[in-house]
């Protein structure tokens, strides 16, 4: 009976997702419901990880291409740690978090963890100077309680804005889907010293039309253009165009998916400001020495 109720519940969710006045009949080989069942299993694991504080932060360096900028700049990336020590990448659990409204809870955990870590390191006399990029989900952009919490946390931390900067990364898709909320969110957080990067830029159909509306600081060029730029002249031209427009607007540009010296040299030649990717190393656990 329990199994039957579980399948009925899954079918109910499937019908709901399909729209109003829909039916969804469960069958044992239903791929859609199998996927949803797997995501529901992740919901419980995410909730437990939030309660037990079993997420971890990794970092990947963002490197200046001109060689003159020696400041520390990292993107901070979340991971989940299982009981057996297995480290799970966000691509595995974030889709379920997004679908079942847990993404804002994860974002909140990340911001609190990052700020607490920086404050603790500062109080211990460790060097924390630098820019720390944090990814935000689209759900968090429209959550007023979330950004009120962030503002309060940052203000209470008393981190020196001239020494430490938190830069929030939002995807182009998330920003465009709710432009009003994105503008309000960015304005409020910039007022307390935060910066913003538009992630995966170029993946949307109306990229340039929306770009000038967003008061951001960094433009991260979508990795799908970067990774094949040596063999695809169209991708190379896209990088050049995005970089040029970014500079005209006074933005710093970042190339993602820089995986070897040849790609680095090419984006350096184009004039992209920063490079990020396996060329400079895979993400490592975030530890402040």
Concise account of the structure shown:
The chain has 289 residues and is α/β, with parallel strands linked by helices. 49% of the residues lie in helices and 18% in strands. The protein is globular.
How does this model look, in words?
- This protein is of the alpha/beta class and 289 residues long.
- The protein has two domains: 1-52; 54-285, Alpha-Beta Barrel (TIM Barrel).
- The chain has twelve helices and eleven strands.
- It has helices at residues 2-18, 31-52, 90-99, 103-123, 138-141, 144-157, 172-177, 179-190, 207-211, 223-226, 233-248, 261-270; strands spanning 55-61, 63-64, 73-81, 87-88, 130-135, 164-171, 195-201, 218-221, 252-255, 274-275, 284-285.
- Strands 1, 2, 3, 4, 5, 6, 7, 8, 9, 10 and 11 form an eleven-stranded mixed β-sheet that branches.
- Helix 2 (31-52) packs across helix 3.
- The chain starts with a helix and ends with a strand.
Q: Helix-strand pattern, N to C? A: HHEEEEHHEHHEHHEHEHHEHEE
CATH homology superfamily of the largest domain: EAL domain
| Strand segment tally | 11
Overall CATH class of the largest domain: Alpha Beta
Put simply, the count of helices is 12
SSE layout:
Blueprint: H1 2-18, H2 31-52, E1 55-61, E2 63-64, E3 73-81, E4 87-88, H3 90-99, H4 103-123, E5 130-135, H5 138-141, H6 144-157, E6 164-171, H7 172-177, H8 179-190, E7 195-201, H9 207-211, E8 218-221, H10 223-226, H11 233-248, E9 252-255, H12 261-270, E10 274-275, E11 284-285
Parallel strand pairs: 3-5, 5-6, 6-7, 7-8, 8-9, 9-10
Antiparallel strand pairs: 1-3, 1-11, 2-10, 3-4
């Amino acid at each position: 009976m329990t199994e039957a109720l579980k399948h009925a519940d899954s079918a109910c969710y499937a019908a709901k997702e399909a729209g109003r006045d829909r039916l969804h009949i469960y069958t044992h080989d239903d791929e859609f419901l199998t996927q949803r069942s797997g995501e529901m299993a992740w919901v419980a694991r995410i909730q437990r990880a939030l309660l037990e504080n079993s997420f971890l932060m990794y970092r990947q360096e963002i490197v200046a291409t001109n060689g003159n900028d020696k400041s520390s700049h990292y993107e901070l990336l979340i991971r989940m740690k299982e009981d057996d020590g297995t480290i799970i990448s966000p691509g595995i659990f974030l889709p379920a978090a997004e679908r079942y409204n847990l993404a804002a809870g994860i974002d909140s955990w990340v911001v609190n963890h990052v700020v607490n870590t920086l404050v603790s390191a500062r109080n211990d006399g460790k060097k924390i100077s630098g820019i720390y990029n944090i990814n935000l989900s689209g759900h968090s952009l429209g959550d007023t309680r979330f950004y009120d919490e962030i503002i309060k946390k940052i203000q209470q931390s008393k981190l020196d804005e001239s020494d430490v900067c938190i830069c929030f990364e939002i995807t182009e898709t998330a920003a465009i889907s709710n432009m009003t909320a994105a503008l309000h969110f960015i304005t409020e957080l910039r007022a307390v010293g935060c910066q913003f990067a538009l992630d995966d830029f170029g993946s949307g159909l109306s990229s340039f039309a929306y770009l000038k509306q967003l008061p951001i600081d960094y433009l991260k060029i979508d990795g799908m253009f970067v990774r094949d730029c040596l063999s695809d002249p169209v991708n190379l031209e896209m990088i050049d165009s995005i970089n040029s427009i970014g500079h005209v607007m006074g933005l710093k540009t970042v190339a993602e998916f820089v995986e070897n010296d040849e790609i680095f040299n090419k984006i350096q030649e184009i004039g992209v400001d920063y490079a990020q990717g396996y060329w400079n190393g895979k993400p490592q656990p975030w530890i402040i020495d």
